[in-house]
Design goal:
The chain is built from 17 helices and 25 strands. It has 513 residues and is an alpha/beta fold. Bound molecules: MU-OXO-diiron.
């Protein structure tokens, strides 16, 4: 494969991978993929945008060498640190010792752990520019599309958007441009959206607003065809797939269950009857051995409450239940009110095991309900009580703190929770509060900027704006930080914080325990 000219002094230097059948372990491919990378030559400097998967590093280097002497390259813009795009950075650092990597801090922390060596870095933020001489790259924050560090680059003079994974397709075709490709890649474009980007609809929405403000002649994604015809069509597709129709519908509760001898089904029926009698929910009930997993998952992605029922067989929940639980991701299930129920015989591990997995999925988990063998009339009454308590939880969700704390303690026990000032080198403060951040401890869990984007905005510099919310709100958000990378201390007791108990985000919290 060779380099391709996109417009004068802008080249595609990526590679095709037509035979790939499985991407990221999770996504089966029908038409392979490509790893798109780009080169922009200004009158003063040469910049690369992203690299390719490591196994294609030599082909990538050969493509670059068709256009420039490698030592002439000044910058590598890393828009996204996933190894399908960052995998050839080690090779570049070997061949271009003067190379400066242009990226943000989150990506920098990831890259350090990928290349395992020092490198020159220039940090950029949303709206920042890199002037190459007659060609300016303007950077556009796109956090969580689909990793925390992701951003786009907009080539101002040529009106080209380098969009990282957004608008990508796993579709290999060496004609590269959508107007030259005569095969239909729309199903692959849609699959890519569904599998990779669609978990982060809120962020796509924000990015589309930024994209729509641009004059655009071309979109150069990180996979699949370069879009230079019908751009509006593809942008509108993202818009339509992302928008959530407004609805006055009641919250959805999903019950997904299976039953060995009908006992767990009896519990399900009692719970369902109670929930229906309350009249407050829309309900969908799935018997897991009879329903395609995709259908159950789609319902769960839209639900406010989830109940899973399983018998215990051989000291565990049964396979159809694990198939479902194993196919869910916390990015989709975070915050759902959930619990489990089931009948057991000589041991009853199914319910507690399901509860454990629900915690891993960051659901707000209520105690489960289980009985031995065949539920009696009295136990059916108890199932009704279980349903009423569940109903209350769905209708009056508490804030998410407890869920996150359970996650900290039980799932991630190695995290250091104590505050050691020398580890928290970054400080952001006003007259009321000091927010501390330890970048080395940060797992980029996204909890802070999903909950409170007016204060925590990774695409900005500084990324913490302590004046973006009242003190109590900042405290609550930091209390829920799963890694403990954020902490706070109070300089004064601000009015908004008077009634707030200091939680695990407070620097002295664990000393008091
Ligand atoms: Fe194509 Fe998220 O890497």
């Amino acid at each position: 494969m060779a380099a391709i000219k996109i417009v004068p002094d802008v080249y595609g230097v990526g590679v095709q991978d037509p035979d790939l059948k499985l991407f990221d372990v999770i996504m089966e491919l029908d038409h392979g993929t490509s790893y798109n990378a780009y080169l922009v030559r200004g009158s003063d400097h040469i910049a690369l945008i992203d690299t390719v998967k490591e196994e294609f590093a030599q082909e990538y280097a050969d493509n670059l060498a068709e256009i420039v002497e490698l030592q002439e390259i000044d910058y590598l813009v890393v828009q996204h640190a996933e190894p399908d795009h960052a995998g050839s950075i080690r090779m570049l650092l070997d061949k271009v010792p003067g190379l400066t990597i242009v990226t943000n801090y989150a990506a920098y922390t990831f890259l350090k752990a990928i290349v395992n060596r020092e490198f020159k870095v220039k940090f950029v933020a949303h709206d920042g520019e890199l002037d190459l001489g007659g060609k300016r790259l303007r950077f556009i924050g796109a956090p969580l599309l689909h990793w925390p560090e992701t951003f786009y680059s907009y080539l101002v003079e040529d009106e080209i958007l380098f969009s990282s994974d957004t608008f990508g397709s796993h579709f290999s075709d060496d004609r590269w441009f959508n107007d030259l490709i005569d095969r239909d890649f729309l199903p692959d474009f849609k699959d890519y959206y569904d599998m990779i980007l669609g978990h982060f609809k809120k962020y796509i929405w924000s990015a589309l607003k930024r994209i729509k403000a641009l004059e655009l002649k071309m979109i150069c994604p990180a996979h699949g065809p370069i879009l230079r015809e019908n751009l509006e069509y593809y942008i509108d597709l993202y818009h339509d797939w992302t928008i959530k129709p407004k609805t006055d519908e009641k919250p959805l509760v999903v019950i997904a269950y299976t039953s060995a001898y009908g006992y767990t089904e009896k519990i399900m029926a009692a719970v369902k009857a109670e929930l229906e009698a309350g009249g407050q929910f829309k309900m969908e009930v799935f018997e897991l051995t009879q329903t395609p997993l995709t259908k159950v998952k789609e319902a769960i992605h839209n639900c406010s409450g989830l109940l899973i029922g399983s018998p215990t067989i051989n000291k565990d929940a049964v396979k159809p239940v694990w198939d479902l639980l194993g196919s869910l991701s916390p990015v989709d299930t975070n915050g759902i009110v959930a619990s489990a129920f089931g009948s057991f015989g000589w041991s009853g591990e199914a319910v507690p095991n399901i509860i454990l997995r629900m915690r891993m999925l960051r659901m707000r988990v209520m105690p489960g309900f289980r009985i031995q063998f065949n539920p009696s009339a009295e136990q059916i009454e108890e199932a009704g009580q279980f349903a009423r308590e569940f109903m209350q939880a769905v209708l009056q969700p508490e804030e998410k703190l407890e869920k996150v704390l359970i996650y900290q303690r039980e799932i991630n026990p190695l995290n250091p929770y104590s505050f050691e000032a020398e580890n928290y080198k970054r400080k952001y403060e006003n007259e009321d509060i000091i927010v501390y951040w330890n970048p080395d401890q940060c797992t980029h869990d996204t909890n802070c900027f999903v909950s409170l984007s007016s204060v925590f905005a990774p695409e900005k510099t500084p990324w913490v704006n302590v004046n973006g919310a009242d003190v109590a709100t900042i405290m609550k958000t930091i209390d829920a930080c799963p890694s403990g990378a954020l902490k706070y201390n109070l300089k004064t007791v601000a009015a908004s914080a008077e009634k707030i108990e200091k939680g695990p985000g407070w620097v002295g919290y664990y000393d008091k325990k």
